[in-house]
Amino acid sequence: MKEALYELLYGSTADVTTTQLLGNTLVALALSLIVFITYRFTYGSILYSKKFNISLIMLTLITTVIMSIIGGNIALSLGMVGALSIVRFRTAVKDPRDTAYIFWTIAIGLGAGSGSLAITIIGTIVISLVCFVFNYGIGSDERYLIIIRSENIDQSLEDIRAHMFKVCRGYKLRSETVNDQFVELVYQIKLKGNASTKEYENMKKIKGVMSINVVSQNGETLE
Fold it and tell me: Does the keyword Membrane apply (predicted)?
């Protein structure tokens, strides 16, 4: 009984050759570069962090090495769980997508480290394609914040709303500041398919409009 238990805990270490380790690591590196490119070109927010993106590559390689060391050894895996339980991760995640990318890189490391290269490669390519399709195709959506400063004239405000209705697929008033000198309006907008932000240059011709600022927004969506 003791021999069987000892064999279960310590005798199931997978013998990974240097060639296999190098091959798995290179595959993990190549796949992590796919993750890097996907994150770079699908994360359209101004909060994009190159340091976080590089850390995804590091996390993939580290997970690959750890999986290669552990192999099928239960004792090492339990020791790794105990070591990780000591570390407290307090880094705040700014975007839910960041968490998804972290799990993606861990999955690549687990797959490459365990030698399941075919599943890992196919899964990585499919996930990357899905990210690009939803970012630039099915799920793409041009959203902007437009800040308009105008004289406090009722006719000017009506002309502004009429022009926005013509070029916007949807808009919502987010804030309105009124004083004796001017009115400042902040709208969240969605452009129509054939419209562009240059359309708003025509709004400067409206009588009473003092300034217009258009800012790309990647946050809360219109309802």
Answer: yes
Please state, as a whole number, how many other Cβ atoms lie within 10 Å of the Cβ of residue 101: 23
C-beta of residue 75 within 8 angstroms of C-beta of residue 7: no
Q: Which domains does the chain have, with CATH numbers?
A: 2-136 (no CATH), 143-216 (3.30.70.260)
The letter for the amino acid at 209 is V
3-state secondary structure 28-97: HHHHHHHHHHHHHHHCCCCCCCHHHHHHHHHHHHHHHHHHHHHCCCHHHHHHHHHHHHHCCCCCCCCCHH
Of 115, 111, 94, the closest CA to residue 103 belongs to: 111
Conformation bin of residue 196: beta by default, left when phi > 0, alpha when psi is -120 to 50:
beta
Higher local confidence (pLDDT), 162 or 89: 162
Extract the tokens encoding 104.
Answer: 């993606």
Partners of 214 in the beta sheet? Answer: 146
CA distance 122 to 173: 45
Q: How many CA atoms lie within 13 A of 15 on its CB side?
A: 1
Between the alpha carbon of residue 128 and those of residues 36, 83, 94, 122, 156, the distances in Å are 10, 32, 21, 10, 47
Q: How is the beta sheet containing 143-150 ordered, strand by strand?
A: 168-178, 183-191, 143-150, 209-216
